[in-house]
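Note to self: the last two entries modelled the partners one at a time, which told us nothing about the interface. This time every component goes in together.
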Amino acid sequence: MSFARFKREAAISRQDICREMLASHRAAIKIQKEEVAIRNLERIYDATLRVSNQKGFQAMTMRDLSRASGLSMGALYDHLASKEELLEMIQSTGRRLTSRILKESYASVEDPGGKLAAAIRTHLYLSEAMQPWFFFSYMEARHLGDKEKQLAKQSEQRTERVFAGIIRQGNKQGAFNEADPNLTAAVIKAMVQDWYLKRWKYAKRRISVDRYADFVIKATLGCCAGINGAGKEAGA
Amino acid sequence: MSFARFKREAAISRQDICREMLASHRAAIKIQKEEVAIRNLERIYDATLRVSNQKGFQAMTMRDLSRASGLSMGALYDHLASKEELLEMIQSTGRRLTSRILKESYASVEDPGGKLAAAIRTHLYLSEAMQPWFFFSYMEARHLGDKEKQLAKQSEQRTERVFAGIIRQGNKQGAFNEADPNLTAAVIKAMVQDWYLKRWKYAKRRISVDRYADFVIKATLGCCAGINGAGKEAGA
DNA sequence: GTCTATAGTGCGATAGAC
DNA sequence: GTCTATCGCACTATAGAC
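The predicted structure of the combined assembly is written out below.
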């Protein structure tokens, strides 16, 4: 698996995201024609992430958003109930979409080394394909209401449990020999997050997501390696 | 070196920070008596980090800060020129203090393994001792003006260059055998940052900074290890 | 479905009493 | 040195013309 292929196969274009957003927030959106609504939601989605990721969601005014999206204040408010709901709309839709993709992606791999490699690779590829959303989601999580904030935390902890679970399974099968699966899972998560939080840095150094994935996987398997080794990744 | 000892020896109490803050922003602070100014600055510093780290600096109003610090709006503005300057005051003072501590801390260690271990350990201990500031600094960096933003980025990159430099030196001396010092330095930085960005998580799991430091150092030296090994840490 | 114009709110900051 | 009271402004959100 390479990033180029992942991106072709995963249905996570901006249009896919906004179709999902419309469907799950139909009542709050006044525009009736689906085609028009999705087209404008794409502009709003795009502009929100662009402006917010530069100066923060709180600092972005609705006038900023109007200017950046090319829609008037009035038209903007025909596509969303409030600024607060816009945040919730983007967060919940992204969370639903990403968790679906992740679940489907590495369930089929059997051997622990390959499974761990596939999990890391998929997380990195997904965060690369949806980098603006991942960055936004990380930085703006604390501006959500209590209920939404809880969901965001859960979603993050689930990722870590996936890594820890694979490592524990590998220990049991003798493929790994890792004394602290939880702490190892935590630092894997930290390395994955660094990819989308500091993307400008890696871009400047011309490091591709494929190369970063190779590096993280090699380092991780090196740490976990048991007597039988665990250097092999899942095929093709 | 343990965290308990580090904290005793480093002069980075809240009072130390606020004394430095007063000295470097004397003109902007109307209060004349140094003792009074520092005492109130401590309450302001504390309240700003507490409220901002929960809801974000932009979302914190000066009325929030007045309530949380126990000072009236008027008194507040006798200790700072504007909300924007409060942000700059906290950031620049913290940056000056932390970079001074870091420079002093691991210069004396000679062997590459011990030097890398000392650098990682010191970064973790410092970020633990000043966790609210590190978190604040990371999350609010993008609300700074262009000039200040540049300084914050520089300060972060310097850290990474320290790690990379030690690894390269170790390679040259044959103690390490690491093909990619820059990428290794980047993921060390990511693991160190995770400590202060996700401290609630580690606190819940009852993982101490000493244990986290041991884990990160062991993992890192394991990856870098050359023929001669590099598992030894700097003494005492 | 999209626009312009504006109502109403809550902000950062200050003046002046004590 | 600290307080209360208030100014002017920029924001979110909406009403109503087209």
